[in-house]
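Crash report, auto-generated. Payload:
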Amino acid sequence: MFPARRTPDRGARPVSTPAPDPAALYRQMLRIRRFEETVLEAFPRGLIFGTTHTSIGQEADAAGVLSQILPGDIVVSNHRCHGHFLAYGGPMVALAAELMGRETGVCGGRGGSQHLQWRDFYANGILGGTIPLAVGMALAEKQRQRHAVVAFTGDGALGEGVVYESLNMAALWRLPILIVLEDNRYAQSTPIARHLAGGIAARFQAFGIPAAEIETTDAVEIAATTRPLLDQIRAGTGPQALVIHTYRFAPHSKGDDTRDPNEIARYRRNDPLPRLGARLAAGVAETLSAEVEAEVEAAFRLAEQAPMASPAVFPQTLAEAG
Amino acid sequence: MFPARRTPDRGARPVSTPAPDPAALYRQMLRIRRFEETVLEAFPRGLIFGTTHTSIGQEADAAGVLSQILPGDIVVSNHRCHGHFLAYGGPMVALAAELMGRETGVCGGRGGSQHLQWRDFYANGILGGTIPLAVGMALAEKQRQRHAVVAFTGDGALGEGVVYESLNMAALWRLPILIVLEDNRYAQSTPIARHLAGGIAARFQAFGIPAAEIETTDAVEIAATTRPLLDQIRAGTGPQALVIHTYRFAPHSKGDDTRDPNEIARYRRNDPLPRLGARLAAGVAETLSAEVEAEVEAAFRLAEQAPMASPAVFPQTLAEAG
Amino acid sequence: MTTVLESLGAGLRASLSESPAVYFLGEDILDPYGGAFKIARGLSTAFPDRVITSPVSEAGLVGVALGMALRGLRPVVEIMFGDFTLLAADQLINHAAKVRWLSGGAAQAPMVVRTPMGGRRGYGPTHSQTLEKHFLGAPGLRVVAASALGDPGAMLRAAVLEDDDPVLFVENKALYAVAVQPTSGLQDIEVSVHGRRYPTYQLRVAGAPAPGLTLAAYGLCGELARQAASRLAFEDEIFADVFIFTELSPHRPEALHDSLSHTRRLLTIEEGTRFLGWGAEVVAQAVEALGPGLQARRVAALDMPVPSAGPLEAAVLPGVEAILSAARALAGRS
Amino acid sequence: MTTVLESLGAGLRASLSESPAVYFLGEDILDPYGGAFKIARGLSTAFPDRVITSPVSEAGLVGVALGMALRGLRPVVEIMFGDFTLLAADQLINHAAKVRWLSGGAAQAPMVVRTPMGGRRGYGPTHSQTLEKHFLGAPGLRVVAASALGDPGAMLRAAVLEDDDPVLFVENKALYAVAVQPTSGLQDIEVSVHGRRYPTYQLRVAGAPAPGLTLAAYGLCGELARQAASRLAFEDEIFADVFIFTELSPHRPEALHDSLSHTRRLLTIEEGTRFLGWGAEVVAQAVEALGPGLQARRVAALDMPVPSAGPLEAAVLPGVEAILSAARALAGRS
Ligand SMILES: Cc1ncc(C[n+]2csc(CCOP(=O)(O)OP(=O)(O)O)c2C)c(N)n1
Ligand SMILES: Cc1ncc(C[n+]2csc(CCOP(=O)(O)OP(=O)(O)O)c2C)c(N)n1
Ligand SMILES: [Mg+2]
Ligand SMILES: [Mg+2]
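Recovered output after restart:
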């Protein structure tokens, strides 16, 4: 259902990452794309609680970066987390079930779209607030010389002060963390020129964190750029940042798009899927597409068949409450 | 008692700053030095409530920078605020009275050493938390094209995230604010290498804020460096930072010094007072010294004679409480 | 019909047009977006220089507003979700709330921080909380909550233009779509209004016997309390005085205590969790003021975060049924 | 004689030496400085790899601790002054407190945030507050307070090593210098201990008649309550049960309610301001549990910031005299 190498295996020792595989990257992006398109379609049918943020257009980031993690590596994500979750190896059916408030959801329907905790994957809807947590995880991992942390965040989240507190500590303590800054040029409705002064890479460099900067929707390029960064991180040289300039095609959440349609159309020319699909051997894209359609269809079908989350039993808030 | 030009005059329009006057700067530094030495002496006598942070060794910052403000300019300060307050033009006797918990104190004894509000001067003991307030004041001033804001902060306060949130807004909105970063190489007991990664000037530049950087205890040099920065700020070009690398000679607060005595001795060679004093015309330093001794003596004497703050009448916490 | 949302928008617009000292700051508040909940719609077009969209910096922005207020302006800040007010707790409590007292009245901080709290939209644990309880009782900070009764927009306007202290202005998300209801001419209900700027509304079923129970609520729960009171009257012949508060901190209990001196039974209702929620203070002040003889209960959310899934959220947040059963128990009818 | 400070230091040291999963992080905690209040003295020398001095970044540091806890470590964070916990409110309430519930128990966050609260040292409005009330009642966050009775160091050790949830561990500054007192062998006082990890201590004057009044307090105010109770017994022949709590949230009221079912008079005492202070919840739960007949009062700080000047601070913060007069009034003796 999803590539076995992405299934975390806590016991394993780091081994070297396989070289970027275009077909696997294409497949991963397509899974994300079709999953999220299906989410947007499911909304009007009243199947989904709350809201959602899709990464349609940005799939290359999740697919490319996370193709380079090793078993046991940790992934920290933000409000726009479906793609990261799927590329990490999170089960699609559990994600669909979570959005639909089913018992079988990733967090039993408690978290919804923005709050996922599964194995070594954590997402939370408070912008920037996940970065110190990611740094703390990296501090723990450094003590034991084990896994790396990959934390995704956005251009808008650079408004939050706690991000800089975290960068400072990550750099001071030379922690094994890769911060992936997905700059999609907007924070919700606000274009970057209105919310961000100075430069993005400079924000990391000011704290002594090297920042690689790419503008691409090519998942292979992203994977190839990520690889040496993670290698260095694993070698113990401290944190790294990867700034990816990209664009989202769909609204911020749903229906709330105030961007210039021409601008969207312009960026759509760089759609990561056809770009990579065209480079695959003949027929591969079609085969993968059929596989993914079946996977997505099954995920939503199974999720919808699962029982609604039930208030009969809630988990504890404290281990010993009384 | 203190130079008339430093007395804020809310109505006045900006005029050009007088050129740095070495004798006036010396006098200002000496006032700060002797005031704070007297504070440290007064502690064992039980005259002073709470704690205190002296700027002994760093007097050139307050004296140099604030010699360049104009009537109505705003000064925002931190926990180490006596020098800023005196150089702003705050009355010495009211400051002494504040520390001694007298009715006549700057804030009637409520604030103590770290919390001063007087005319357009504001200090608060929460590190970094004053910077957004300073930026907000600059936003207000920009609307009316009036005064500049000068905000002092330290190397340690660069650990606080809200500082970066504020830098971003100051730069985005091109606000008339000068941030003076007094880098005395320590945050309390912690040397800068243990609390700050990357660079100080880079922290500002990453937000598009130009940062002038000087390493000096020469108040004339500091005044001369400040002058064009404030000129630009007044011309509406947006925020500026001035990073001054300096050193404090006295303990962080009182008696809590764990720094290497040799290091302190080394920096003491750059004591701003003898350095500038030697450059004054013969006899000037002596005359000023006598004046300042008398001023300090009178300030503490008058403060001590004032009645203790009385709990009979507290000010309101809300204008309409019930 | 005017909704609470429209009323608040109109109040904000009135504030901006009546005083050039008023500024409105927040994330994504510019047209055409007009803010996450659309209260700001049209404002940036009408007042382009005084509606300022900000980076995602809640703490910094509240501090900026404080600085503006100290310079004589009257800023209004929108925090997109009430859950994010925790990021500004230091700025509100350690800075803004202390200015007046510290300066002995020489300085003041007339600023309003508006924010939507509450759930019932499936947004999950960090976008559905009712967190104002964590801000109540901070000396120097006023906390008020919009109500569908009366005129929420006028109350917002008064907070912005007339209140010279920092105000946390809480709006319940599920209340946004509710129609504003005038205090006079309500069918079957008599309303007494206590206080002026931040009124407390006292509701009784018209022509009913003397009440045997007093309900106290605010925000959306004020609506739920009203519905519960009608059902109690018509289904159980339990008659209640319903108090809907708009000022949460400080608490103005005089009229409530008057009612309680007759009913001696107090039920508080709120959407946040019970432990040190608003109701705890209401109950404690009532016991202190009225002495022995008072019975009290509190209806509130279950002691856990707010889940996303509909059935879970409905089980966690208080509804009319929970109020009915607590009221019946308190009235000795269960 | 062991002071509370020494006991806490010993408890921290014991935690570090018993488990390699324990880390200690904070500002200025390295030797020879050893932290602003010196609890950390010697620790960085003994455990150089697990005592980590941090930048001045309270929010970030609490988040870092959460990340460590999620990876199986047991971090302890020192926030230099309790006033600065407001900077970490988001990390504590929006992040740490939700982990267990959200993951359905698959993840947990065993972390302790230690901090000194309280005044009486002249430090002024941002270094003297008692702010724990703003954190009480956040689902998933435990708040406890050290007491001079019993063994505060052992309680800290238990919080660090045994509690698998986030704990805000409050230490009153003025309590640091007080001698720790065992619960047995106290002159003229009988102590019952309720609960284990975070005990509640119940004190009575030995051989006194049945108590007519119940006092509930924590932290330094526990000491003040004891002193007041002795004076009430010897000067006024008013006999009181004194409860000193160490767990503030959740609240474990069983033994207190037992006492109240006899005395029906409750006086709560705390150093923070009254409005939605801890006492409000104690009173509200008592009224709910005991029904009509309860009388209650709350002794707390005046409703304003904590001033620096000695005479002002003394007037604002509650002392033994304030307890005595409230107790006498409650006992009908004034
Ligand atoms: C602390 C906080 N403030 C505000 C929000 C509301 N919000 C959700 S997404 C968003 C924009 C985020 O922009 P960015 O980080 O660039 O991510 P993107 O949505 O573009 O992927 C905002 C403001 C939030 N979730 N958390
Ligand atoms: C928010 C906050 N955290 C911690 C402290 C405690 N503290 C007071 S001064 C200080 C060091 C400040 O260093 P720096 O900014 O360099 O100023 P300096 O003392 O060197 O003048 C610390 C940590 C504080 N006052 N506020
Ligand atoms: Mg973005
Ligand atoms: Mg310093």
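Post-recovery validation: Strands of chain B lie at 74-77, 116-118, 121-123, 149-154, 177-183, 186-187, 190-191, 211-215, 240-245.
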